[in-house]
Amino acid sequence: MESHQSPTSPPETPKRSPFTGIFHKLKTNLAFRSKLAEINGAMGDLGTYIPIVLALTLAKDLDLGTTLIFTGIYNAVTGAVYGVPMPVQPMKSIAAVAISSTADEFGIPEIMAAGICTGGILFVLGLSGLMQFVFNIIPLSVVRGIQLSQGLAFAMSAVKYIRKEQNFSKSKSVGDRPWLGLDGLVLALVCVLFIVLVNGDGEQEEEDQEERNGSRRRRVSIIRKVISNVPSALLIFLLGVVLAFIRKPSIVHDIKFGPSKIKLVRMNKEAWKNGFLKGTIPQLPLSVLNSVVAVCKLSYDLFPEKKFSATSVSMTVGLMNMVGCWFGAMPTCHGAGGLAGQYKFGGRSGGCVALLGVAKLVLGLVLGSSLVGIMDKFPVGVLGALLLFAGIELAMAARDMNTKGDAFVMLVCTAVSLGSNAAIGFAAGIVLYVVLWMRNYGRVKPTNLPVQVDQHP
Description:
The protein is built from 21 helices and four strands. By secondary structure, the protein is an all-alpha fold. Strands 1-4 form a two-stranded antiparallel ribbon. Strand 2 and strand 3 form a beta hairpin. The protein is globular, with a radius of gyration of 25 Å. The termini are far apart.
């Protein structure tokens, strides 16, 4: 019998299940580029995370176990969704207000109310498309100014951690750090030099030429490659944990196994009012600029192949706080400094922060709030070493401002931000950019043509 099917008809393409595409994306986003480097990169954000969490725990009785559980989940989810080392950091303005206020003025209910209000506004801005509109119209020179100011602020805080002893519960320095000791100045400086030796300036080194220039250079290249693969941040963090137990051996007896009891935070009308006025209003500009706009810009610079919108980033920040803050988890956001720090130490995929999230989740479930004692004795100078390089890496993003006009706007924005806050710096940068644009409107740009000179006979 003759077949009625045409011999030239194309074969039927098997239908692909949507779950297959989702699984493939998750697998791609969570795949490690280099196991040791990704583990090392996961430590790059701890210089900002630990001091703020510890300060809120000691000063305001923040539930550390609950915070670790929720932030661990946030890390894992954002790593799977975005495929880059997207950090989860404390909301710094809310934390600053809480630490500088008494428990009656701004306690746990006010902190959580501020987080929920900030998250709700960011979620609406993302859902409505306004955040993407803001992202598209903000000049790059202004964004670089915000990034430079934030990076320098991190670096200056790191220097303060290294030079001065800190009382995180009161958010202030309490005297010069001694040169020697388990949290001495020498230890911090050795950590800084170790990171420089291992990681260098962060640029990928070209080794192809050295491979072609004889056996001696090949050996040097191999040694350099071995050194660069040392997980510097991971080793420094583990050193800090060991020193914490040496500084106070009785910590072992204070450890209690089991998670904290998760409970709903009760917030009255006064808590909502104070949380919004004292917490949300100063936090919102910083969240829009540093947690969404600057994060997206920096991610596009570091990972141009990864495409995600300011809309989605704004909505994930909103969802994190609209869920976790009801149960007492610290208000959180993404941050350009955390992304820069994790990239500096080797983070290249979502698996980096997913691994960190799993570690937080396990610690929160197994040890709960008993981790406070370990964190309290963790050498602050060591944290300063990690934070220093996270700040420098973020500030280095500003090196692409090649024209004098862009550099001028960026530096004014940076100076005003450091002298006041990011919101005022942003406003100053926008005004300056518009004024310069109006001044130069219609001006003919100079060309590279040679100047014509009249020839006289």
